[in-house]
Design a protein that fits this description.
The protein has 4 helices and 2 strands; from the N terminus they run E-H-H-H-E-H. The chain has about 80 residues and is mostly helical. The longest helix is centred in the middle third of the chain and has 14 residues.
């Protein structure tokens, strides 16, 4: 049996909070996007943390809900 990790909006927000992005769980995805963009400008080290998170999300055993996948795509395009 194959087990797949399903990443929803809350999972993504929690992952971003773990790496230091100043967001709240009740923020909208647009607010999250803006917070990540601001956070990235503050330090070049933040980009490395975000890249590590992207690598984890690209695992073949991870499935992103469509709205989460869209935000991750937008953030990787920054």
């Amino acid at each position: 049996m194959m087990i797949v990790d399903l990443v929803d909006e809350v999972d993504l927000k929690e992952a971003l909070m773990e790496i230091g992005v100043p967001i709240k769980l009740d923020d909208t995805l647009e607010q999250v996007k803006q917070a990540v963009m601001t956070w990235l400008v503050q330090s070049s080290e933040h980009a490395a943390e975000l890249d590590k998170m992207y690598i984890q999300l690209n695992d073949p055993n991870v499935t992103l809900l469509p709205e989460v996948a869209e935000l991750v795509y937008e953030l990787t395009s920054l």
